[in-house]
Amino acid sequence: MEFKKIHLNGFKSFAEKTVFLIEEGLTGIVGPNGCGKSNIVDALKWIMGEASPKEMRGKAMDDVIFNGTTIRPQNDLAEIEINIDNKNKKAPELFNDCENIEVKRKIEREKSSTYYINNKVVRAKDVHLLFADASSGPNTSSIVAQGQVHKLIGSKPEERRVLLEEAAGITGLHARRHESELKLKSAEQNLSRLEDIIKTHKDQFKTLEKQVKEAEKYKTVRDKIKNLEITIIK
Ligand code: ATP
Ligand code: MG
Hints:
- This protein is of the alpha+beta class.
- The chain has helices at residues 37-47, 124-133, 148-153, 157-167, 171-233, and strands spanning 2-9, 18-21, 77-85, 100-108, 114-117, 120-122.
- The structure holds adenosine-5'-triphosphate and magnesium ion (MG).
- The site of adenosine-5'-triphosphate has 15 residues, from helix 1.
């Protein structure tokens, strides 16, 4: 999976539609302080599902929307789209038929984010898994933000383990394990609910059995009475 293009629209300092092409080899972005270089890295983290406004260097998620200048009004929505080349067919099964994968995230003021993969609305979890399987994601070692190298050097062994696991490409498996554990828990709850229902039905069955026996007794007695009455009449 190779990133080919990033479209930014209304995201942070990119008020207008801007497209960055990522050609083969290394891509560098240079520019003066405050021109928006880190905003492009933020855009990458955001499209991969970053949910923390702090990680986006803001207070609320709406802070990623262009907030206007003295000469330009603010935007009402921000969008990032990324085009991924999947010719090597390494995407998760669900999307592996496609040679090109387009992932889009959109946010409108005071509304939550919407995610799309190939123009279909998907859950944030689907986007997480897509990138986790490619050993990428907003909090992985594949994105090293300004000042982070220093943090990495001083990281604890457990934090380093996370980095090694990402490098080994098993982050996707971890995400799936968590999802499977949740499913297992809900299946267990359903099972115990079923056991309760079966017990209630068994109790009801016992009562019904008693009632059937009584009804049969009643029928026999009633038949006996009828026969006696017939004998008396005769
Ligand atoms: P440096 O070289 O100092 O690291 P940089 O090129 O990485 O700089 P960024 O941090 O990407 O710069 O961009 C900062 C600029 O983005 C600031 O001028 C800030 O005002 C602007 N900015 C951030 N969020 C928004 C927003 N929501 N609307 C408009 N501008 C924004
Ligand atoms: Mg920067």
